[in-house]
Write a structure and sequence with these properties.
The complex is a heterodimer of chains A (306) and B (261).
Chain A (H helix, E strand, L loop, with lengths): L3 E12 L2 E12 L3 E5 L6 H8 L7 E6 L2 E3 L3 H5 L2 E4 L11 H11 L4 H14 L15 H12 L6 E5 L7 H16 L3 E6 L2 H7 L2 E6 L2 E6 L1 H8 L3 E6 L3 H12 L2 E5 L2 E6 L3 H8 L5 E6 L2 H9 L7
Parallel strand pairs in A: 3-8, 3-9, 6-7, 7-8
Antiparallel strand pairs in A: 1-2, 1-4, 4-5, 9-10, 11-13, 11-14, 12-13
Helix pairs in contact in A: 3-4, 8-11
Chain B lengths: L14 H14 L1 H26 L2 E2 L2 E2 H32 L2 H6 L5 H29 L11 H22 L6 H15 L11 H9 L1 H13 L7 H27 L2
Antiparallel strand pairs in B: 1-2
Helix pairs in contact in B: 1-5, 2-3, 2-5, 3-5, 3-6, 3-9, 5-6, 5-10, 6-9, 6-10, 9-10
The chains are: A alpha/beta (306), B mainly alpha (261).
Chain lengths: 306, 261
């Protein structure tokens, strides 16, 4: 992508002998919302830190807003906002003071920051809390304040590391709405997430990372179309393992048994559904394939260490 | 440790917004903080000064109270800068992740570490000024030279903040700081001429004391308090500045390594 706002080529980072980021190539265009998915330890956060120029790569090149990173990271970060994975708001300050103090770090003039604060508070739905101290805010409010803080310098690119982890559904939906507004304003977003519904709703394009590499990339729709059968039938019950061994391969092009559930991936679900209607003791759920199916196919079902 | 960790510090004026952040936090707790700044040295000065002073009418050619006042300026600024660099610095780096938030802006780690040192020294300046104020109020010194203790307090603050940050950079938790206070701060308090002249120590300890930065701070403070220009003033200043630069550079290298993991 020649007009990429953010690009990386052959990016590598070792911790000791282990390649945490192992040859990542990325190109993200202006106004795009790009999602980086992957299990814990896949290298997502390290990739973000490399792209921001916070750590030095062992190999590879990064360009952020036309500037080489990490060499010119400081200049690039003037036009970048970051929502970190863990809240690092200033607990001693009020909501408003957090925005004011953060704006100063960008070298912004005092009156410019103060002029921006009301709009930022509105955006974060925190106008009524502007004098509240950070420890009195709910988790969702803290997240929204962190997002508002990342916008204090009116950035062109916003990095979001698991922006909705730990939030309840209401708080999450409000964040999603705000992120959509930002893409509509033409901001470029790069976000990491564990939540496939989040990625599917927000992202124009996605990359799935595992063991330091990008193993698949595309729009949510393409990812599903290219990687997996369009229909899924989940079969539940105590007898499911025995049933799957005898019948699943006959009806499904691919199946997996996990605990007391068999996941059957099919192009046409009708023959399987007719068969299941005659089975005693088995329940089932028929649904279209989604990003989570793709993710589990690509990265496997076994648990990952943090 | 990678080669770029050893790069010389790159300084910029971007430390200033961080310094203002610390000031804003401090303003919120200023009352209790100022009481602490004044109470701690006062307890030493009045308790030991009147208590021991009545047994020791003269020390180093002056009243024990005046002798002690000069030492107390150095001791209390050392303490204040060390606490700031260790406990408050660790909270900002590790617990509150304040540094992480700052580093996502155009500010670099070099600016962050510089601001920590300058902020701790600023608090030391205040602490030193408080003691000098009390010394004047008690009529222990009226020499204009004693005002030189205020900039000295800033220099002592720079020195001990920079040295303290080395420990902060290595600390896994707050418990680690006990070692620093027991093995570094307490010996300096007792060996560097705060409470009695270094000349009272055995010769080996005297030689050792000459290596310690607090000795050089006391060697500046005591003559100034008595209204005399210190001998070898620039040597003592150079030692304190040398320790400052050493602490700044070593802690910066260690922070670079720590925060790149």
């Amino acid at each position: 992508m020649s007009d990429a706002v953010l690009s990386a080529h052959g990016l590598r980072k070792f911790y000791g002998a282990q390649a945490v980021v192992d040859g990542v190539d990325l190109a993200i265009g202006r106004g795009e919302c790009f999602g980086l998915l992957g299990p814990n330890g896949a290298g997502k956060t390290t990739t973000l830190r490399l792209l921001l120029g916070l750590i030095e790569p062992d190999a590879g090149e990064v360009r952020l807003l036309g500037l080489p990173v990490p060499q010119a990271a400081r200049a690039a970060r003037i036009r970048v906002g970051v929502v970190p994975q863990m809240d690092n708001l200033d607990p001693d300050f009020t909501v408003e003071e957090n925005l004011l103090v953060y704006g100063r770090y960008f070298g912004m003039a005092e009156h410019d920051i103060r002029a921006r604060i009301p709009a930022l508070l509105d955006f974060a739905s925190l106008a009524h809390k502007k004098d509240a101290k950070v420890p009195t805010l709910s988790g969702g409010m803290k997240r929204r304040l962190t997002l508002a803080r990342a916008l204090v310098n009116d950035p062109d690119v916003i990095f979001l590391d698991e922006p909705t982890t730990g939030l309840d559904p209401q708080a999450r939906h409000l964040i999603w709405q705000r992120l959509r507004e930002l893409t509509q304003q033409g901001k470029t977003l790069l976000l990491t997430t564990h939540f496939m519904d989040e990625a599917e709703r927000l992202c124009h394009r996605l990359a799935v990372m595992d063991r330091g590499r990008i193993i698949s990339e595309g729009s949510p729709h393409e990812m599903i179309a290219h990687n997996i059968e369009p229909q899924v039938v989940e079969v539940f019950g105590e007898e499911v393992a025995a049933w799957a061994q005898r019948h699943a391969a006959h009806y499904a092009s691919r199946f997996e048994v996990s605990g007391e559930t068999a996941f059957c991936y099919v192009v046409d679900a009708q023959p399987l559904l007719q068969h299941l209607q005659q089975q005693q003791g088995l329940r089932y759920l028929h649904r279209p394939a989604n990003l989570e199916d793709v993710f589990l196919k690509l990265t496997g079902r076994e648990m990952r260490e943090d | 440790m990678a080669a770029h960790h050893f790069a010389p510090p790159r300084l910029s004026l971007r430390f200033y917004p961080i310094w203002r952040r610390h000031l804003l936090v401090w303003k919120k707790v200023a009352t209790s903080s100022v009481i602490g700044h004044i109470a701690d040295p006062m307890i030493y000065l009045l308790g030991l000064g009147y208590g021991l002073g009545s047994l020791l009418p003269q020390m180093g050619g002056t009243s024990y109270m005046v002798f002690l006042a000069a030492g107390t300026v150095c001791y209390s600024t050392m303490n204040s800068a060390s606490f700031e660099a260790l406990y408050s610095g660790f909270a900002r780096m590790h617990e509150q992740r304040t540094w992480e938030a700052i580093l996502n802006t155009p500010i670099t780690l070099d600016d962050v570490v510089l601001s920590e040192i300058l902020w701790a020294a600023s608090k030391s300046l205040l602490s030193g000024a408080a003691v000098v104020g009390v010394v004047w109020a008690l009529g222990l010194s009226h020499s204009p030279l004693s005002l030189g203790l205020v900039p000295l307090a800033f220099l002592v603050g720079l020195c001990f903040a920079a040295l303290g940050l080395i420990t902060t950079a290595l600390a896994p938790s707050y418990d680690f700081f006990m070692y620093y206070f027991t093995l570094v701060i307490t010996p300096m308090m007792l060996l560097c001429g705060v409470f009695f002249p270094v000349a009272q120590l055995p010769e080996t300890l005297q030689a050792f004391a000459q290596l310690l930065p607090l000795t050089h701070a006391v060697n500046i403070a005591r003559p100034l308090m008595n209204g005399v220009l210190p001998t070898q003033l620039w040597l003592h200043v150079a030692v304190l500045l040398g320790y400052t630069l050493f602490g700044f550079y070593v802690s910066l290298v260690l922070f670079r390594r720590r925060l790149s993991q």
